[in-house]
Amino acid sequence: MNSYLSAGLGLMAGLSLGLLGLWLLGSGSTPVRGKPFNPALPAFPQVTGDNLNGRRFEIPGRLDAPFNILLVAFFQRQQDDVDTWLGAAREMAAAHANVEYYELPTINSGWGLVRNWIDGGMRSGIPDFGARERTITLYTDTAKFRELAGIDSPEQIWVGLVDLEGRVYWSARGRATEDSLRALRQVVADTASPAAPGRP
Fold first, then answer.
1. 103 vs 49: CA distance, rounded Å
2. What are the CB-based long-range contacts (under 8 Å, 24+) for 91-99?
3. What pLDDT score does 15 carry?
4. How many CA atoms lie within 13 A of 177 on its CB side?
5. What are the residue ranges in the chain where pLDDT is below 70?
6. Among residues 1, 49, 193, 196, which one has the fewest Cβ atoms lying within 10 Å of its Cβ?
7. Can you give the pLDDT at residue 120?
8. Beta strands, E only, the chain
9. Which DSSP letter does residue 54 get?
10. Using CA of residue 112, residue 71, residue 134, residue 131, what is the dihedral sign?
11. Cα separation of 112 and 67, whole Å?
C-alpha cells in the first residue's frame, strides 16, 4: 500500500502547540486561485505543489499529460480510500498516452513551515520513484481550495478527470465502486481518446 499520508502525517504528532496555532491560523499559505465554483462548469483550482522527488508543479496547467486523474485527500485515514482508485488509474494511464494520474495530499498551509520534515517522512515510506513522482503535496488554504473546487466537506476524498485548463470532465467522492470505476473508464475513453471531440 502506498502510505504517503501515513508516513508523513504520522510525524506531526510531536509538533508543538505553537506550530499547531500557526496551522489553525493558516499562515504561510501557498496561494490558491480560481473563479467561484460553478456547478454547471466545474473547474479545478490553480495551486502550486512539489512532488516527493522535489519537482515543482503548477496545477493543473503544468501537469505532464493533457488529461489527469487527480486524487485529493485531506486526512491520513483517507489513504485506504485513495488506494481503491490507484489500480484503475494506473491501467488508464498505461492505456492512454495522454492520461496521467496524481495523488494530491492537501494539507492546511500552516504546516508549510515544516514541509521538508513532513515530505521527508512521506518520501521515506515510498521507495518507488514513480509513486513519488505522482505524489504532489499541496500546502494551501484548504477551506478556500474546497470552496473553489466545490468540495463541500473534507471527510471524503475527491477524484476527478481534469485537463490542463482546469476543466473537470467527471468527478466522484469517496472510495471507488464498480459503478464509479466504470464511469471513470468511460469518460476517459470518450474524452481522452485521440478522436474525442473534447480533447483540448
1. 11
2. 92/184, 92/185, 92/188, 93/65, 93/69, 96/67, 96/188, 96/192, 96/193, 98/65, 98/66, 98/67, 98/192, 98/194, 98/199, 99/65, 99/66, 99/67, 99/68, 99/69, 99/188, 99/192
3. 40
4. 5
5. 1-29, 110-125, 194-200
6. 1
7. 56
8. 32-33, 46-51, 56-59, 67-73, 99-108, 136-140, 158-163, 168-173
9. S
10. positive
11. 28
Cβ contacts of 44 within 8 Å, gap of 6 or more: 34, 59, 60, 70, 149, 160, 162, 166, 167, 168
- Alpha carbon separation from 32 to 5, 38, 147 (Å, rounded): 21, 17, 11
How far is the C-alpha of 72 from the C-alpha of 26, rounded, in Å? 19
Strand, coil or helix: 112: helix
Q: Which residue has the cell 488508464?
A: 92
The residue type found at 166 is: G
**Residue ranges covered by each domain of the chain:** 4-35+43-192
> CA geometry: angle at 95 spanning 66 and 78, to 5°?
75
Q: How are beta strands 46-51 and 67-73 bridged, if at all?
A: unpaired
Q: In angstroms, how far is CA 162 from the centroid of its own chain? A: 11
Torsional sign, CA 39, 81, 92, 7:
positive
State whether CATH 3.30.559.10 applies to domain 4-35+43-192. no
Q: How far apart are CA 91 and CA 88, in angstroms?
A: 5
